[in-house]
Specification:
The protein has 152 residues and is an alpha/beta fold. It contains six helices and five strands.
Length: 152
């Protein structure tokens, strides 16, 4: 059974709960890292643990949801080895995996409806990375990341 980490802020909680149920149908274990109510929270407090787990290789993939997805996307991409893709359509979901090997899917809970979000996550989970010229490009990104972070 595939595992992924999932988290949201208050604006994405309803969609997160729906996607957790759908992931179960897809035989994917969703490790829920918050939130569990609608009280206003700061998205970095919930996105960071997911991005950290993916960054460290403790879990292969993650899903983050906030109101627009922008904040979670910016946050997640601060972590080394994270390639978070903000997705609001099926084509972008596919390309984020085929060409960019995205390991965190970010969705705007106030932007994307439940039905479309289910289609997006299914395509994102079933699409394989093509490698080849795309791997060359990711290697260049890793070089830049290492340069910026002093080779760490």
């Amino acid at each position: 059974m595939e595992r992924l980490a999932i988290a949201s802020d208050h604006a994405g909680r309803e969609l997160k709960e729906d996607l957790k149920a759908y992931l179960k149908e897809l035989d994917v274990e969703a490790v829920d890292m918050g939130v569990d109510n609608d009280k206003s929270v700061d998205y970095p407090d919930y996105g960071s643990p997911v991005a950290e787990k993916v960054s460290k290789g403790e879990i292969g993939k993650g899903v983050l949801i906030c109101g627009t997805g922008i904040g979670m996307s910016i946050l997640a991409n601060k972590f080394r080895r994270v390639r978070a893709a903000l997705v609001s359509d099926v084509y972008t979901a596919r390309m984020s995996r085929e060409h960019n090997d995205a390991n965190i899917l970010v969705i705007g809970g106030r932007i994307v409806g439940k039905g479309l979000a289910r289609e997006i996550i299914k395509v994102w989970l079933t699409t394989k990375f093509e490698g080849g010229r795309h791997q060359t490009r990711l290697d260049k990104i890793t070089e830049i990341e290492n340069k910026i972070n002093g080779g760490k």
